[in-house]
């Protein structure tokens, strides 16, 4: 197994390395890839020093699997070049997610759709992954009619430069601006670019990707995505209307029995999910489970996960593991 991590110097890339180590992903050779700016730079992983290489050199090495987290334009240009030499690309960017010929995979939900000839596999948007993982068992039992989601997203979701902006603001220094406004002590109802319909691209990703992952265009979804000055993970308020009525105890039980989901729901003892506790964890945390008393068959829930983990690195490594376990790579 020759494995390439493309974008290895970035936030998601370094998280991928941690997850590969923790999950003991089996490989014989590791290629750490970034832009030409970083080529030649040294990175250490598991006590060994690696020299960062550029994309052309990485393609020439014909890796078996390449996990990409280097932005959409890099993926659009380079994923096909890797695919051409036989590499399976698992891509964290949004470049291929809505391409009808590419699978959009959360292994616990639709890993079974993967086939041996899939060459570019898309990792969904971080906010979408944590929401669909928590909703999947409930959808199976009660059917979903409509989802209303509002997010509270970590600055780590924008990458290293955004974390630098927030930290510089905290120190009173003049930062290089990634966001249009100050992020520390502020809330931006704006993630990714605005679309002609007034939604942001992040909101449209949540809407469209949810339908694709569940393979159900009839699910109604509306989203408001918001950036907050927090590290550690994304939080979401999700209001979901089911086709059938539910029992709250059964909802708790279904979620508790779902691999990768942890229920933290004990309001009497102030137990609920928070990014502070989700940080560096692979699981998706669910709490504040309560009936929406304003309309039938509707549940309110609070979902938190580390966007760099299940929202990106963990999900990508799980896809790679699935391929290995099923002898597809
Ligand atoms: N952050 C998240 O929560 C999250 C979640 C899901 C998906 N993603 C996606 O993952 C990707 C990376 O996000 P990030 O947060 O890790 O960003 P980041 O911290 O800014 O890192 C970007 C990485 O991409 C590399 N890169 C940039 N331009 C490149 C080029 N032309 N050729 C090769 N490598 C290039 C950078 O290398 P240099 O160091 O050499 O510039 C760096 O390793 C994005 O597509 C993002 O949408 C992020």
What's the β-strand tally? Answer: 13
Element order, helices and strands? EHEEEHEHEHEHEHHEEHEHEEH
Radius of gyration: 20 Å
Ligands (ions, cofactors included): NADP nicotinamide-adenine-dinucleotide phosphate
Total domain count = 2
EC number: 1.2.1.11
Organism: Lunatimonas lonarensis
Active site: 126, 234
Domain Semialdehyde dehydrogenase NAD-binding: 2-117
Descriptive keywords:
single chain, 329 residues, alpha/beta, Rossmann fold, Dihydrodipicolinate Reductase, domain 2, 2 domains, five-stranded parallel sheet, 10 helices, globular, binds NADP nicotinamide-adenine-dinucleotide phosphate
What does this structure look like?
The protein is α/β, with parallel strands linked by helices. It has two domains: 2-124 and 312-325, 3-Layer(aba) Sandwich (Rossmann fold), CATH 3.40.50; 127-307, Dihydrodipicolinate Reductase, domain 2 (2-Layer Sandwich), CATH 3.30.360.10. 32% of the residues lie in helices and 22% in strands. The protein has ten helices and 13 strands. The protein has helices spanning 11-22, 55-60, 72-84, 107-110, 126-142, 160-170, 201-213, 248-256, 275-278, 309-325; strands at residues 2-6, 29-33, 42-45, 48-51, 65-68, 88-91, 120-122, 144-152, 220-224, 234-242, 261-263, 284-291, 298-305. The chain has a six-stranded mixed beta sheet. Strands 2-1-5-6-7 form a five-stranded parallel beta sheet, sandwiched between helices. The chain has a two-stranded antiparallel sheet with strand order 3-4. Helix 1 crosses helix 10. It starts with a strand and ends with a helix. The model has no long low-confidence stretch (mean pLDDT 98). The structure holds NADP nicotinamide-adenine-dinucleotide phosphate. Residues 7-13, 34-35, 37-38, 55, 69-72, 74, 92-93, 126, 156-157, 159-161, 307-308, 311-312 line the site of NADP nicotinamide-adenine-dinucleotide phosphate. The site of NADP nicotinamide-adenine-dinucleotide phosphate has 29 residues, from helix 1, helix 3, helix 6 and helix 10. It catalyses: L-aspartate 4-semialdehyde + phosphate + NADP(+) = 4-phospho-L-aspartate + NADPH + H(+). Keywords: Amino-acid biosynthesis, Diaminopimelate biosynthesis, Lysine biosynthesis, Methionine biosynthesis, NADP, Oxidoreductase, Threonine biosynthesis. The active site is at residues 126, 234. Catalyzes the NADPH-dependent formation of L-aspartate-semialdehyde (L-ASA) by the reductive dephosphorylation of L-aspartyl-4-phosphate. NADP(+) binds at residues 9-12, 37-38, 307.
């Amino acid at each position: 197994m020759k494995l390439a991590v493309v974008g290895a110097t970035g936030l998601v890339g370094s998280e991928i390395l941690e997850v590969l180590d923790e999950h003991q992903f089996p490989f014989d050779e590791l290629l750490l890839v970034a832009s030409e700016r970083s080529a030649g730079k040294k990175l250490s992983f598991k006590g060994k020093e690696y020299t960062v290489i550029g994309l052309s050199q990485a393609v020439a090495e014909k890796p078996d699997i390449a996990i990409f987290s280097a932005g959409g334009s890099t993926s659009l240009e380079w994923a096909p070049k890797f695919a051409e030499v036989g590499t399976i690309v698992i891509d964290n960017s949004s470049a291929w997610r809505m391409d009808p010929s590419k699978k959009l995979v959360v292994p616990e939900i639709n890993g079974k759709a993967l086939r041996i000839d899939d060459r570019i596999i898309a990792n969904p948007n971080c906010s979408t992954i944590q929401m669909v993982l928590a909703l999947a068992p409930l959808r199976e039992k009660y059917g979903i009619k409509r989802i209303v989601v509002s997010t509270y997203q970590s600055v780590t979701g924008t990458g290293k430069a955004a974390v630098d902006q927030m930290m510089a603001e905290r120190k009173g220094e003049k930062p290089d601006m990634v966001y249009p406004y100050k992020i520390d002590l502020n809330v931006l109802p704006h993630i990714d670019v605005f679309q002609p319909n007034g939604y942001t691209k992040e909101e449209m990703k949540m809407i469209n990707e949810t339908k694709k992952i569940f393979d159900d265009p009839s699910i109604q979804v509306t989203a408001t995505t918001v950036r907050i000055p927090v590290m550690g993970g994304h939080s979401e308020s999700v209001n979901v209307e089911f086709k059938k009525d539910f029992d709250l105890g059964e909802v708790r039980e279904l979620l508790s029995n779902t691999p990768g989901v942890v229920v933290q729901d004990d309001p009497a003892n102030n137990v609920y999910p928070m990014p502070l506790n989700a940080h560096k964890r692979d699981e998706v945390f669910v709490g504040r489970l309560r009936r929406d008393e304003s309309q039938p068959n509707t549940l309110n829930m609070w979902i938190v996960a580390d966007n760099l983990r299940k929202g990106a690195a963990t999900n990508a490594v799980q896809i790679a593991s699935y391929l290995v376990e099923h002898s597809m790579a």
